[in-house]
């Protein structure tokens, strides 16, 4: 074949590749979840207040409750969830491979994660920041007093990258101890293997509270070196499922904004407020637009309560202040787009 014809054939074949890729069927997670009759939800290996299993194997926490809210919206039953523990290093693979339908496990929304791994964040469930815990006996009051310290970190997390950036910018030296498992890295700190342990403030508050009578032996330093918007993730390309997850989160927030609770949600269906009617399914066809029943949001709210109720149940008992996680009208960063 003459060179020109060979080149033209090669270029034509190359031009077809993107079209072929686009021709691949998009995943239909909503249909798969319904056919299976349960939601597979990726969670952490155990962080109190976010996702933690008790001795009976029942999961609790803000992330776990969000999984239940989605199950209630889709399947009508918040208990139809299979919780799948994941580590910082296995969480994205579990979602990419389809092992889980939804990842709800204290994962920070970042540019690289939102654009480079075929996954998408559906919103912010918790605004957090990276902090440090030390033993009170160490006698330090700020991170900069700990130059040369040994610091426990979970690898494969933004925590590891944030500390490296902060150290470089502040000429700070440290010796990292990298341990993947959340329980093991805590134990390394409490046993004295590390001078400090760093993770999100919600996690630090949780593990400090878990020390019971010993909790005053430990101090969370005032240094917060990052912003960590934590939220649920789904696979890109499955946009109907993306909408289901995103708008379930919005519904929980909108319910708090409207004073709708688990206890009064059913009674509020007769509310004359048009926004309430659209949220709870008494007017409009919002459920149909995302492949769900009209009362999908009502089912989610009855299952877990609104966002504020979820917070009070899971975060408040640990002493975590809502801060940025207050509603926007109260000075926080939590708000929902309108149901219109």
UniProtKB/TrEMBL annotation:
SUPFAM superfamilies: Periplasmic binding protein-like II. Transmembrane segments: none annotated. The keyword Transport applies. InterPro entries: Bact_solute-bind_prot3, Solute-binding_3/MltF_N. Residues 1-23 form the signal peptide. It comes from the Bacteria. PANTHER family: AMINO ACID ABC TRANSPORTER PERMEASE (PTHR30085), AMINO-ACID ABC TRANSPORTER-BINDING PROTEIN YHDW-RELATED (PTHR30085:SF7). Belongs to the bacterial solute-binding protein 3 family. This is General L-amino acid transport system substrate-binding protein. It comes from Muricoccus pecuniae.
């Amino acid at each position: 074949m003459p060179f020109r014809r060979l080149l033209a054939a090669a270029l034509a074949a190359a031009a077809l590749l993107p079209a072929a890729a686009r021709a691949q069927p998009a995943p239909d997670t909503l249909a798969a979840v319904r056919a299976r009759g349960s939601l597979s939800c990726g969670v952490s290996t155990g962080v109190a207040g976010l996702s933690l299993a008790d001795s009976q194997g029942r999961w609790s926490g803000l992330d776990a409750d969000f999984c239940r809210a989605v199950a209630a919206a889709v399947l009508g039953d918040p208990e139809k969830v299979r919780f799948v523990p994941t580590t910082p290093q296995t969480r994205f693979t579990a979602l990419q491979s389809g092992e889980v339908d939804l990842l709800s496990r204290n994962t920070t929304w970042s540019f690289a994660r939102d654009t480079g791994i075929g996954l998408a964040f559906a919103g912010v469930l918790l605004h957090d920041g990276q902090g440090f815990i030390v033993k009170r006996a160490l006698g330090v009051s700020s991170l900069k007093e700990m130059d040369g310290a040994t610091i426990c970190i979970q690898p494969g997390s933004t925590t590891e990258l944030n500390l490296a950036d902060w150290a470089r910018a502040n000429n700070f030296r440290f010796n990292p101890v990298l341990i993947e498992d959340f329980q093991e890295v805590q134990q390394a700190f409490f046993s004295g293997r590390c001078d400090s342990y760093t993770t999100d403030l919600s996690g630090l508050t949780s593990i400090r509270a878990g020390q019971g009578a010993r909790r005053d032996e430990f101090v969370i330093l005032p240094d917060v070196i990052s912003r960590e918007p934590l939220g649920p993730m789904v696979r890109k390309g499955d946009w109907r499922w993306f909408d289901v997850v995103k708008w379930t989160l919005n519904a929980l927030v909108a319910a708090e904004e409207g004073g709708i609770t688990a206890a009064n949600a059913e009674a509020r269906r007769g509310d004359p407020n048009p926004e309430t009617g659209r949220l709870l399914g008494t007017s409009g066809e919002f459920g149909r637009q995302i492949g769900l029943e009209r009362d999908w949001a009502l089912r989610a709210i009855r299952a877990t309560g609104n966002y504020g109720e979820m917070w009070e149940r899971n975060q408040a008992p640990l002493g975590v202040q809502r801060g940025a996680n207050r509603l926007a009208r109260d000075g926080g960063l939590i708000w929902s787009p309108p149901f219109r």
